[in-house]
Amino acid sequence: MVKFHKLKVADIRRETADCVSVALEVPASLKEAYKFIQGQYLTLKFFVNGEEIRRSYSICSGIHENEMRVAVKKVQGGKGSNFINDNLKSGNEIEVMTPMGSFHSPMNTSHRKNYVLFAGGSGITPLLSILKTVLQTEPQSTLILFYGNLNEESTIFKKQLDELSQKNSARFNLHYIFDKPASPSEDIYKGIITKEKAKTLFDKHISPDADNEFFICGPKPMMDNVRETLEEKKIDQAIIHVEYFTSSIDAPDNPVSPSEKVIAQVTVVQYGKETTFELSSGGKAILDAAIDAGVDAPFACKGAVCATCRGKVLEGKVHMNKNFALTDTEVAEGFILTCQSHPITPVVKVDYDV
Ligand code: FES
């Protein structure tokens, strides 16, 4: 069950001019609750000028490292990322939700996989966690990282990645793609990751017959380019993992159609307690209505990206406006993003405890 706890900031490290990484101290009593899987994220809750802010940031530590660290890149006008970059200090306390996210695949020491990672900008954060975990956990697996940035200077974790690739040169191939490189580089590693470039990189570096597992995280256009390329290459969807973040998404809403509109009795279950309220399909999302009804429902992005608000439909049906976080399997099992969900049957029951 996801829950917020107050954690102390153990260390803040400047990674680039506009990005810091923040290590959080986990007391012995909460070690189990904060045991994370590579590629997961934390939701932080704090106040800026009296306004409550919740933001999700990916963990960049490997699961074997004795540290839980997230990276936070400044977003223009972003209240949360600017506060963390400019004001948060070591020793401060901050509310942190227990780890969430499904941007991972199972690890096994006997695996002989080839992990293909496509990162853009701060999208490197969960991929660094995956990369370090694979290097440590699967001695026979290999990795290749394509990492797009403006230039060398703006590349988050560059020093760490260079060291990892030198130390593991037989297993880890690192390719930077700079839009405006400071030093000369081949055309294939210059510019942005367009569909054409993704295809060229694939043809040059990836064997389609290997036991590949693909992970993509970065700005939405880059992710779409890579994803479409993999689709054209007929790569099985089951081995393509994507992680969006809110600032990269600008997708149209898909509201409830007029023919589906109802006034519903919605019941939400949290910590075993049921709360029932009336809700129109054309009104607020189930998450917001639940909060209005006094439920301490979990949320972070409210943008269909983080899945913090995930619940399971036990009765009735809902319509989700958007979904960038749940897999098709999860949706088929009845999971929903409550921040995007509206009832479309007269009775709906949603469980936050699953
Ligand atoms: S709060 Fe992030 S997906 Fe709903």
How would you characterize this protein structure?
The chain is 19% helix and 32% strand. It is an alpha/beta fold and 354 residues long. It folds into three domains: 4-97, Beta Barrel (Elongation Factor Tu (Ef-tu), domain 3), CATH 2.40.30.10; 114-248, Nucleotide-binding domain of ferredoxin-NADP reductase (FNR) module (Rossmann fold); 258-351, Beta-grasp domain (Ubiquitin-like (UB roll)), CATH 3.10.20. The model has no long low-confidence stretch (mean pLDDT 94). The termini are close together. The structure holds FE2/S2 (inorganic) cluster. Residues 299-309, 325, 337, 339 line the site of FE2/S2 (inorganic) cluster.
Can you summarize this structure?
This protein is of the alpha/beta class and 354 residues long. It has helices at 79-86, 124-137, 158-167, 195-205, 220-232, 286-292, 328-332; strands spanning 4-16, 19-25, 41-48, 51-58, 68-73, 93-97, 114-120, 142-149, 172-178, 212-217, 240-243, 263-270, 273-280, 310-315, 318-320, 335-337, 341-343, 347-351. It folds into three domains: 4-97, Elongation Factor Tu (Ef-tu), domain 3 (Beta Barrel), CATH 2.40.30; 114-248, Rossmann fold (3-Layer(aba) Sandwich); 258-351, Ubiquitin-like (UB roll) (Roll), CATH 3.10.20.30.
What are the main properties of this structure?
354 residues; alpha/beta; Elongation Factor Tu (Ef-tu), domain 3; Rossmann fold; Ubiquitin-like (UB roll); 3 domains; 6-stranded antiparallel β-sheet; 5-stranded parallel β-sheet; 7 helices; 18 strands; globular; binds FE2/S2 (inorganic) cluster
